[in-house]
Structure prediction request, 483 residues.
Amino acid sequence: MAKKVLIVDDDQEMLRILKKDLSKYSRTFTVLTAEDGLSAVEMLKKNNISLIITDLEIPQMDGLALLSHIRERYPEIPAIVITDSSTPEEQKLAKEKGATGYVEKPFIIEDLARKIITSLKKEGDGGILHGIAPGTFLQLVEMEEKTCTIRLTDDKSGNQGVLFFKEGELLEARINELKGRDAAYQILAWEEATLSIQESCALTENKVQADLQALLLEAMRLKDEIREQTEQEGVIEAEEPEIKVEPERKITLTTDGEVAKDNEPEIVLELEDEKPAPEATTEIKKPSPTITPGTKKSTPTETKPRVKPRTAQVPGSEDAGIVYSIGDNIFSAVSDLKASILGSSFIKLIFKALVLFVILVFLGFSYFYITLESDRDLIKQIGQTKAHIRSQQEARFQIEEEIQRLYTEKEQSFKNNESKVAFMELDLKIADLEEKQEKIETETKSWKKDLEACQVKLETMKRKTFLERITERIKDYMSQKAA
Prediction:
């Protein structure tokens, strides 16, 4: 499992960069951050921190006060100090407060990572053991008179604790906020734990003040008491009170409300002549009830008159006694009409053709819209044309300068009475340059015409609406197809 490193600094940007750049070492350690001293104290309470890196200048609790807190409450945690500027006095004071390293800003991330890994390796330089009974192993530590700091993690509950040994003597025990003997009792009662051994002890004062064997015996006694108490509570919870159920009585009522004489032990109400409730959808005429000899005729109960909706008697249904509402008839007629319309093959064909026409219109409109020349395209084309004309003019000016140079060279040759061959070579060069100059002038005129045409087209396009431009585009397309 990766160990946790807490970095404390009031510079949020630096914390973000450190956490991001150090994430590539996540298999070895993970980075937690805090922006002030009090936040760092809360992080120490909630997490099993293996190393802390802090700036000296942090709000709410400065770095030196935080180091003092760590040395007092978490002496097993090493601390590295980072700061913008340091003096020998500050370094000495930080070391006295428990700092194991010092890093000056600015620093290289890889150098800080190496310091972190080196400090974390010291935490387990004495080895890591898994599935060990703490009591048995600690007796060996006492016998060998070892000086070490042991971090323990209970394999069952996941609780974490720390033990400090100086020459085989147990000085202190800690589990979160619990210290001393109470913490030692809990740790020694663990059945199996993972142990990380550091071959150093930052404490010198014995705060437990008890022999290890006595602590082991007391821890076992407390463990047995808790086990017995738990077992007794489990037995009490398992014993449920017996619930007696009184015999039920069966009560039979006649139609006149009198109770029958033969009462059996069951709570069941049986009502004679019970009739089912009428259905809500239809009203069916029922025959009048018959009265059997030996029973009294029950008087009907008064009920409030119920308003019925307007109904229509369907011819031929008098004998059946079924009444249909007008709303049902209208709904049925509309449903039949809808089914007949949608069921027609001709209507289906028209509907499909209409859908196909809409799709084709949409595709055509999309094509003309995509291929429609926009203002932006013309502006871009005008800019490119102007740039090309400028480049042509620059080339023409260069040729003119070269022609003037050649004429000057020709006059100089004439004054120096040079040979006719030199004169002919200069004339040929001048002729070639003049030909290029004419060609450039011709191309420039063509580009200027294109530029004027684009400008006119742009002005015309700005005066037209979008619908007019689409219509014109369609006409151009149709004329091209016709041609």
Observations:
- Residues 420-463 form the longest helix (44 residues).
